[in-house]
């Protein structure tokens, strides 16, 4: 397929671009970064700078592709004014999806967020009703980021109702790569009392990229929503034990696939997409949450 990847210069966009190329697809990329006008290394995908909140620019980059992977977004709500986050994230999705419907694009993969249920950046705190959280969990978003992602998922529903496009929304957990594992997950690995709204969940960016490729290649009809999270939790803690210790009976504990389960379930993605995660925090960090020392092959 000819696949457009938006937000291609972010951590998820870069990994998804390479995974899509490795899967044999022709890739076109777009972001807000200025293009380079030097000779490109062989195999570099075509890049077009575009502001997707402008409908004309969105239509220009979508024209002629078979599938769209829409990653571009302000990635969380705290660094911009609320109206900026909401307008940017919702209107960019609207414009790209409208273009895809207009041009008869076959598949649309939308990178949504684990924040959609609403317990990540709420103005009035509340907890998940049960864990591990899955796609059936009730949705009560409060912040502009989660609201925009939730409304964007509804745009996917509307698109499949009025066209033949197939849509998949992916809700990734906290995305990690080799450069941020120690800083982000180290404290939770050392001490389970370092809490997060995702209940010790995370996802490796390269496992997420594999899921994105599977979603783009999928022939699932309509619109499906999938959580993507590592099956284990940060630190390998006994999930039932730490959930009860730190939350008591305020969060219902449901069946676990493994003792060190994640706070977010990806069982649906494994079942329907055939996604099989291959990486863990253990590939990057030791039991104390410190980066593993690389063996450089030097003689001792």
Automatic annotation (TrEMBL):
Query: NAD-dependent epimerase/dehydratase domain spans which residues?
Result: 3-219
Q: In which pathway does it act?
A: Carbohydrate metabolism; galactose metabolism
Family annotation (InterPro entries): Epimerase_deHydtase, NAD(P)-bd_dom_sf
Note the Pfam families from the entry. Epimerase
Question: Taxonomically, which superkingdom?
Answer: Bacteria
Would you identify the family this protein belongs to, as annotated?
A: Belongs to the NAD(P)-dependent epimerase/dehydratase family.
Write down what this protein is called: UDP-glucose 4-epimerase
Source organism (scientific name) = Arthrobacter sunyaminii
């Amino acid at each position: 397929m000819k696949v457009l990847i938006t937000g291609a210069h972010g951590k998820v966009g870069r990994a998804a671009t390479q995974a899509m190329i490795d899967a044999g697809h022709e890739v076109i990329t777009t972001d807000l970064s200025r293009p380079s006008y030097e000779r490109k290394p062989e195999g570099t995908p075509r890049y077009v700078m575009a502001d997707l909140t402008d409908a004309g620019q969105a239509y220009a980059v979508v024209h002629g592709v078979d599938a769209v992977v829409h990653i571009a977004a302000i990635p969380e709500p705290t660094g911009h004014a609320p109206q900026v986050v909401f307008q940017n994230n919702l209107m960019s999705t609207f414009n790209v999806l409208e273009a895809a419907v207009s041009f008869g694009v076959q598949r649309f993969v939308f990178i949504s967020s684990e924040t959609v249920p609403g317990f990540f950046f709420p103005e009035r705190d509340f907890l998940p009703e049960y864990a591990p959280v899955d796609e059936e969990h009730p949705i009560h978003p409060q912040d502009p980021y989660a609201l925009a992602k939730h409304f964007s998922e509804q745009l996917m529903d509307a698109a499949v109702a009025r066209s033949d496009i197939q849509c998949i929304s992916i809700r990734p957990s906290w995305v990690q790569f080799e450069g941020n594992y120690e800083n982000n997950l180290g404290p939770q690995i050392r001490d389970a009392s370092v809490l997060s709204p995702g209940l010790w969940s995370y996802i490796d960016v390269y496992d997420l990229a594999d899921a994105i490729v599977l979603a783009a290649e999928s022939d699932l009809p309509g619109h499906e929503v999938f959580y993507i999270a590592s099956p284990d939790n940060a630190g390998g803690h006994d999930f039932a034990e730490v959930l009860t210790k730190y939350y008591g009976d305020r969060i219902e504990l449901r069946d676990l696939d493994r003792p060190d389960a994640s706070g977010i379930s990806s069982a649906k993605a494994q079942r329907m997409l055939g996604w099989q995660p291959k990486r863990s925090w253990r590939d990057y960090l030791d039991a104390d949450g410190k980066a593993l020392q690389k063996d450089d092959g030097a003689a001792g």
